[in-house]
């Protein structure tokens, strides 16, 4: 039996948005930064921007606690702009991709200094802010300001690649996905439309075992008809990541640990950290040494902990009580190392 592939012509998906939005009206996820469909409340661009920056490369579950803490401590963009850099970096610790935290501050300060504390309400205006890329600009423009922007995150990419059976491997498929999505964006509810697609990708059109029988747009989903949903979008072959090695120093005195701040530029820039050398050393051979492996976007790092004497506590740094290390705002890499060291000391 031959498989009937629905016509990819736009006419065939003309009522895509109404079907999706009707589903969203009753199935929308309740998220702390979201205005529920049908609510008369006005979206707060600050909260939407903050959530979108936090959600890049991270899950909703991982972000929820950070979002609550940030908005409680810095309820407006003006509060965030006035915050101490070190406090923001420490509050961000554990979310990863620390350049985003530095850009977050730069962006908040630009909104206050150049825009009177009011976010620009167009995609182009938003894109001109520090650290705001195409995706964030489109998402904030659509969700906060009702602009008919074409919002494409990983969830949306997956839904559209499947619905329109776009089998070109990523990242080349991005253009086709965008082109397929653009004509579907409704002018009346572009923000809800983007969020509905995000929810569909997160809850039904999941990477593995999509629940197609519950999908509001299954009727003309080309990948469902072809039985190829799970294989889309086609990912590029994974490249082996370079392996790098480094050493961090455990310098202890009177139940306190010597901590430094990493240079603003570079990996984990501006974050509190253990001192140590550059991450380009030969692999450590010291058997039994405490070490952790951590994956960055472009390389894997094995960081080995070495005990050093107080004479190495040089330069700028601070003695931090070991019993209070949880409050130091160490990024995940160093937290893992410290936790391992404490375990090995038990
Ligand atoms: Fe995704 Fe299945 Fe819906 Fe197609 S029918 S969009 S594959 S959940």
Characterization of this structure:
With 346 residues, the chain is an alpha+beta fold. It is 39% helix and 11% strand. The protein has 13 helices and six strands. It has helices spanning 16-27, 45-55, 60-73, 77-81, 85-92, 99-115, 123-127, 134-145, 154-163, 173-181, 190-203, 222-226, 332-345; strands at 243-253, 256-261, 272-273, 291-295, 300-308, 318-321. Strands 1, 2, 3, 4, 5 and 6 form a six-stranded mixed β-sheet that branches. A hairpin with a 2-residue loop joins strand 1 (243-253) and strand 2 (256-261). Helix 2 runs antiparallel to helix 8 and helix 9 packs across helix 11 (190-203). The chain starts with 15 loop residues before the first helix and ends with a helix. The chain binds iron/sulfur cluster (SF4). Residues 159, 162-163, 204-205, 210, 212, 215, 217-218, 221, 223-224, 229 line the site of iron/sulfur cluster (SF4). The site of iron/sulfur cluster has 14 residues, from helix 9 and helix 12.
Rounded average pLDDT: 91
* Helical stretch tally: 13
Instruction: Report the β-strand fraction as a percent range.
Output: 5-15%
Give the % helix: 25-40%
Radius of gyration: 24 Å
> What is the number of strand segments?
6
Distance between the termini: 66 Å
Query: Compounds present?
Result: iron/sulfur cluster
- SSE arrangement, N to C: HHHHHHHHHHHHEEEEEEH
Question: Could you list the spans in which at least 5 consecutive residues all have pLDDT below 50?
Answer: 1-8
Class inferred from helices and paired strands: alpha+beta
User: What overall geometry do the principal axes of the alpha carbons give?
Assistant: globular
Biggest sheet layout = 6 strands, mixed
